[in-house]
Specification:
Helices cover 27% and strands 28% of the residues. The chain contains 16 helices and 30 strands. The chain binds one RNA strand through strand 8, strand 20, strand 23, helix 12 and helix 14.
Length: 566
Amino acid sequence: MKTTKFHLQTRKETPADAEIISHQLMIRTGMVSQLGSGLYNWTPLGLKVLRKIEKIVREEMDKAGCLEMIMPTIQPSSLWEETGRWDKYGDLLLKIKDRAGRDFCFGPTHEEVITDFARKEIKSYKQLPITFYQVQTKFRDEIRPRFGVMRAREFLMKDAYSFHLSTDCLKKTYAKIHQAYCNIFERIGLTYRPVEADSGEIGGTGSHEFHVLADSGEDAIAYSTGSDYAANVEKCEVLAPTKQRKEAIAELTVIDTPNKKSIADVANFLSVSPKKLVKTLLVEGVDFPVALVLRGDHELNEIKAANLKQVASPFTMLDDEQIKMIAKCDAGSIGVKDLDCYIIIDRAVEIMSDFITGANQDDKHLTGVNWDRDAKFNQVADLRNAQAGDPSPDGKGKIKIARGIEVGHIFQLGDTYTDSMNAVVLNEQGKSQHMTMGCYGIGVSRVVAAAIEQNHDDKGIVWPQQIAPFTVVILPMNMAKSERVKQVANNLYSDLTKLGVEVIMDDRKIRPGVMFADAELLGIPHQITIGDRALDEGEVEYKSRKEMQNVRIKLDEIVNHITSLL
RNA sequence: CGGGGUAUAGCGCAGCCUGGUAGCGCAACUGCUUUGGGAGCAGUGGGUCGGGAGUUCGAAUCUCUCUACCCCGACCA
C-alpha cells in the first residue's frame, strides 16, 4: 500500500473528550471515528487491525473444533420472553418494533438465538458435543459508554456456545476453549492472565475472565509469582497467617487522640505503623448489626463480607446515627472493647497483640489492647482484599497485584437456557434430556484498545507484530528530487510485497519529519528509511518501532533482514 | 437513571459577563522557497455560532425550552 492511495488521516492534536491513551491514539491515527455515543466507524486503517485479530480468533476457534455461523443481529422478543430476559436484561436491551408493531431487540448476546437453533437442529446425543461461534456486532445500550471502543455500545464480539449431554463433557470443552483463548492472546502478542471469576448470576460451576494487563485497566488482578494462580482481587482468598499471636505485654491504656479520626491520622499522631492499629466497621447484619474488624493497613472486601451469613445483603455500612447508638461515639473512635454486637475479625487481626483501637468514646483510643484479656470476638473470617506480598492461596509463591482489562470471559452455563427454552435431546436410553451449555466471549474490538493500552510510548502505538496494520513501513527521503531514492524505494516495495509482506510506503510529498512522526504514531513494527546519505554507501536504514535504534543495512541484504524478523 | 459540565470551521480553542450578525492556532487547497525529525512566505476555501421559541431596531452574546456529547457512580466483551 502507498500512503497516497490509502486513507491516512492522522492528527497532531488529541480530541478533548478522549480520556485514555488507547482512545486518544485511535483517534489520532484515524483508526476510528465517532458517529454517536458509543458508536464508531472503523476506518480502513482500524479495520486492518480488527481483521487481524478476528483471523487469529477464527483460526484458534476452528482448531478447537468450533463451527462458525452468523445469526441475526435483530432478535424477536418472544425468545427473550421465554428466558425471562426481555424484562430482566433491563435497559441494556435496545428494543425496536417492526412495521407491524412486533417487538424485537438488537442482540446484546445470542444465548436465546443459539439455544433456539440448537433445540430445532439437535435431536440426538449423537450430535453432541457441538460448539457454534459467531463474530458479530452486538449492541448493548450501556448506561455510560466511554473510553472509545473500550466500552462502546455497538461492538464486535466473538461469542461461542457449546452444547453437551453431561457436565463432564462440558468441562472438557471448557478446558479446550480455555486453551484456545490462551493461544489467541499468546498469538496476538499480549501479556494476559486467565483469572478465576465469579460465575455470579448466570450460575454454573466455573468461570474465567481473560485480562490483558495494563496500568489503565479497570480491574485489579491478584496473581501468583510462583504458579499460574490468578484471580480478581475481590475473589482472591487471603490465607490465615502462619505466625502465632505474641504474648500480651502492654498495659491497656486510654489515650487522648483529639480530632484524630482516620487510621492515618491516629498512626501519625502516635508515630506508629498503621499495622499496629485495628479498625472496626459497623455494618448491617441479618438481624443485628455486625462489627467487621481489620488491621489498619488492610482494606475491607465487601464481597467477602456480604457472603458471610451474619452480614446483610446488599452490603450496607451503618450511618452515623446508628453508629452512635451502638458505639456511643463517632465512626473515628469505634473499638472492639465492650462493643455490644456480633464481632467478626479478619484472619490477620486474630494474631495481633498489644494493638491500638478506638475507645468507643470520641477523641480517645486504647493502646495495648489484647484479645481475651480486654476484648472478645465471635468469629474469624477472611474479610480483606489481597495485597501484594500476601501468600498465594494455592500455597505457591506470593501475590502480586496488576491491573487488567477484561477482554474475554468463559462460563459453564449449565442448563439455565436449555431448561427455560426446553432444548432437549434423546440420550442413549432414548429418554429426553436437557442439554447443558457453555458460553465463551471475546470482545474483539476491545482487544484492539487493550493492545494499545499495553503497547504504546510517547510517540504513539507500538503494535505487536501479529496485529499491526502494516508490518513494514518504507520512508523514502526526498523522493521527489532523488530518482535514485525513488527507484530503490519502489523496488524494495515490490520485492517485499511479492514476498507477501504487508508494506506501506510513504510516497507523499512531505517533509521527512512528518513521515517519521506518522510512522511512529501508527506503530508499524519495522521501519526502513531510504535516503541518498546511506545509499552512497550502498545502505539503507532499519529501525524497529520497539527499540527505536537506527541500524545501517546493506541494500542487498535488507529483504533478508526483514524476513528474518517476521 | 442520579450528580456535574460542554456545544462557535475537520481538530483544539477565544469571543458571551458589558448585544451592533465571528476570530486565532493546527489541518485543507494554490504558488514560490525549503528538504533527514511535525518548515517559511504569500494567498484561498470552509461556520444559518447544536435545534426551536422569546426579548430587542438588532442575539454567538440575554431568557425559556429541546437535543447531543463528555465527566463521576452502578453494569459489562
